[in-house]
């Protein structure tokens, strides 16, 4: 790791700049109090970039993202941009970043803080202490593979079709990330597909099993059909540690897992690319929530998902595990103290705004 860690900050639209603002304060604090030097650069993305440059992502910002040690992303989108042509919509900026940076591994943790155990719709005993990770393949599969399209049928009407396609290297590389992550966690990987009805699922299971045999003997591994996984997530989610799955199933299962925790404003995510020959990995970190236009500018957005995204960046891209642990602990303590933003408020707790929540997290770090 170079002396200066290069961070590109892309706050984006809506509440993005508000929540990322708190992340910047934490970064400042780490710089000052822990003597960590960051080479911090800020850029525009989404509607904010469109307003200035007429595009949701400039080539210059993309180049900065590719050369950064980590990109910290806020959120994009909003009603102001709803009528723009497809290619200019704010979300295209995010999708282009993911594609051009080749971020094939999407990490979506779902954890329940003790203080938040009553926010879930599930029984306390089912979700108390939950800490699982859904690893979704992000650049292949049915959202990208050809052929796809909508065509007229000779007999009238149309046909719409997509292709779910995975190759051995694509399955192996996401499988390796799963094994690595499990080693840093509780040592279990569940590979999820539908090999009972899909050819791509048969290959997925075959390749994963070979990988588990050759590279994953030190961890516990299993295979599960996606529909069963969907059920198991609400029946007994604590049986899982790392769930690795394809783009489509990962999209659905990661949202299901997120909802187990009952709080959109608390969950971070990471998207990782391959390591280059110097061991440097492209990466982007972002909260799972959107730009929340309904509360933007009011100073009430919950910054915790973004702060925990920074914690993931410290852990996975910057080799700063102990700082990541301190940050996770600070968030946990603030919640234990009963501080809540409006989205997670409950009886008997103290409602605070975005910057007071940031103050409280930084105070705990001290
Ligand atoms: P959203 O996540 O922005 O908001 C859903 C609800 O949750 C809203 O009521 C919002 O106020 C609340 N909420 C979300 N994050 C919060 C936070 N940190 N603190 C407090 N409350 C929070 O989803 P949406 O309303 O479906 O989408 C709004 C816009 O965001 C759309 O333009 C959409 O395309 C975009 N979006 C962007 C991303 C992204 O940038 N990755 C992801 C999802 C949606």
If you had to describe this structure to a student in words, what would you say it looks like?
With 366 residues, the chain is an alpha/beta fold. Helix content is 41%, strand content 21%. It is built from twelve helices and 14 strands. A hairpin with a 5-residue loop joins strand 11 (268-275) and strand 12 (281-287). It starts with a strand and ends with a helix. Bound molecules: nicotinamide-adenine-dinucleotide (NAD).
Structural key phrases:
366 residues; alpha/beta; 10-stranded mixed β-sheet; two-stranded antiparallel sheet; 12 helices; binds nicotinamide-adenine-dinucleotide
Condensed summary:
Helix content is 41%, strand content 21%. It has 366 residues and is α/β, with parallel strands linked by helices. A ten-stranded mixed beta sheet has the order 2-1-3-12-11-4-5-10-8-9, sandwiched between helices.
